[in-house]
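Appendix B, example 12.
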Amino acid sequence: MRDTRESRLLLVLLIAIAFALITVDIRAGEESPVDGARQAAAAAFGPVEKGMATAVDPVAHAIGAVRDSGERHNRITALEGENAALKAKLGSDDRNKSRIHELDEMLKRAGSGQYGIKGAEVIAIGAAQGFSWTVTIDAGSKDGIERDMTVLNGDGLVGRVTTVGPDTATVVLANDPDFTVGTRLEKTGELGFATGQGDRALSVQMLNGKAKIGPGDRLVTFGSRGNKPFVPGVPIGEVVKVDPSRGDLTRTVWVRPYVGFSRLDIVGVVVMPPRADPRDAVLPPKPEGPKPTPTVTVTVTPSPNASIKPPAE
């Protein structure tokens, strides 16, 4: 195209239309009028992304081994067997050892919470579908994935499914500024709402402004009605800062998420919720602090027959 006045006007017009569509999409949220186009794009380009990821990743097919977790009554046994099979398939190089560890941790979380999961790999990262923090996974409607399903990994809450194509799905991450999830404080059960803050700690608004909470306290998902978009009990993170109480009805705390959103690889989509709220069962045991060193006190008792020698001259 020649650089003419008409071509420049056309370019400006196209940019204006693009910004208008982005604005409408963000403000409309779940009812976005461009959601249909987004799903069509996922259906068109999803197989390409999935095919490219499979071509460059020699262990892509191994993740499929955790996509069916078996019947509910023997889910844990099935997961353990699948995990052992995956270890044999994944090999022994450093990267695969790291991925085996990720699978181990994810299957432990799924077993502790009694979640039925579909395993998937992250094959793309980007904000091309209307959100600031999203990833694309290599599992879609053909694998039983639906919109508003919880996504986790071996560390905790990753996000939720927003758009589903036949072979791929888009996941909005928990650190996205438009992401909100109900939280429950370990042991005390105090409730709140966590909001993503990008690469900073999550902001959590505690509903009880007088709640006793401090650094090191841990939070899990409270769960949603019908278990969508969130199942209960998934670890979220650990409190790192508590804003001073000013007598308000609510109180803000800052939580460091367990998940490293910039290094996601293997994730699990919860396709079968637990029968009962696992409460704090999915949280790992807290590390024990250093044991105090015992202090030995020696008391000397003089003998009644002891003699006192005069000092030498």
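The longest helix spans residues 5-28. DSSP finds four helices and twelve strands in the chain.
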